[in-house]
Write a structure and sequence with these properties.
The protein contains 7 helices and 18 strands. By secondary structure, it is α+β, with helices and mostly antiparallel strands. The chain has 2 domains: about 60 residues; about 210 residues, Fumarylacetoacetase-like, C-terminal domain (Fumarylacetoacetate hydrolase, domain 2). Strands 1, 2, 3, 4, 5, 6, 7, 10, 11, 13 and 16 form an 11-stranded mixed sheet that branches. Strands 8-18-17-14-15 form a 5-stranded mixed sheet, with no helix packed on it. The mean pLDDT is about 95.
């Protein structure tokens, strides 16, 4: 099941996206945060019944938002979680990206608003000359997680989305930690939907790619994680409560701009398409 947030007739709604682009509105919850936080088994039964109904509108008649436009908390992120990306990052800056991979690298990303599919990202030309992209699988939790065993993590996952971990590499490497260079406004595109956990085999082994102006840049699979979802959620939940709706960006495969022999950082007019199998495409333009 694919869940979306959209605007129709100046009203924000959530809905179920059908394969043909039709949308069935979900009337029982005011927004996606509320659905994730309050849905129970009866609620899931209602969604499954709604999914079988005829579409009330379609994508061409609405304005699509990010599925979670305003997350309750900052995004939790994994750094250097694909082996080949760790190598290309270290080549770019050994000081900033050195890792022995024994332990996961965690950082957070400030988010005022998640940009939707079709949203525009500021070039921030006065702040950065090294604007970069990172396609990532976003994992969204559906239950509060505290001291969770690795073998139980799958029961805590609500769904998945496509995430673009936009980065200002010069800001990222100039500072001792990555928060500022990862957190400028618009640096959290996510969408186009949430694919619910029951729609994807676990652990997810999904093709993950990015293109810039039609040129393939990243091409990997989510089965290539160094630190998998079970390990990450279990470890983070030891002594720290991960609330329902928590978004975890799981890292990116090789092929980012900083990893190129002659880095081609993003500039105004560039179009980035991040795509993950079973979820969809997230397209954003630099302005």
């Amino acid at each position: 099941m694919k869940l979306i947030t959209y605007i129709k007739d100046n009203s924000e709604n959530i809905g179920i996206l059908k394969d043909d682009g039709g949308i069935v509105r979900i009337p029982s919850y005011p927004d996606m945060n509320n659905l994730i936080e309050s849905i129970d088994e009866k609620g899931w039964e209602e969604l499954r019944a709604l999914e079988k109904k005829s579409a009330e509108t379609c994508l061409s008649e609405v304005r699509l938002l990010s599925p979670i436009p305003h997350p309750r908390q900052d995004i939790l992120c994994l750094g250097l979680n694909y082996t080949d990306h760790a190598k290309e990052a270290k080549q770019y800056s050994t000081d900033a990206f050195s890792s022995d991979k024994a332990k996961a690298i965690y950082f957070s990303k400030r988010v005022n608003e998640c940009l939707p599919d079709g949203g525009t990202i500021s070039a921030f030309e006065k702040l950065t000359q090294r604007l970069d992209y990172e396609v990532e699988l976003a994992v969204i939790l559906g239950k509060d997680a505290f001291n969770v065993k690795a073998e139980d993590v799958k029961d805590y996952i609500f769904g998945y989305s496509v995430f673009n971990d936009m980065s200002a590499r010069d800001l990222q490497t100039e500072h001792k930690q990555w928060y500022f260079g990862k957190s400028l406004d618009g640096f959290c595109p996510m969408g186009p939907c949430i694919t619910t956990a029951d729609s994807v085999s676990y652990p997810p082994a999904l093709k993950i790619t990015s293109t810039v102006n039609g040129q393939l840049r990243q091409n990997g699979n989510t089965n290539m994680f160094i630190h998998d979802i079970d390990e990450v959620v279990s470890e983070l939940s030891q002594g720290m409560t991960l609330k329902k709706g928590t978004i975890i960006a799981t890292g990116t495969p090789k092929g980012v701009a900083m990893g190129m022999e002659k880095p081609e950082f993003l500039k105004k007019g560039d179009v980035i398409v991040c795509e993950i199998e079973a979820i969809g495409k997230l397209t954003n333009t630099i302005v």
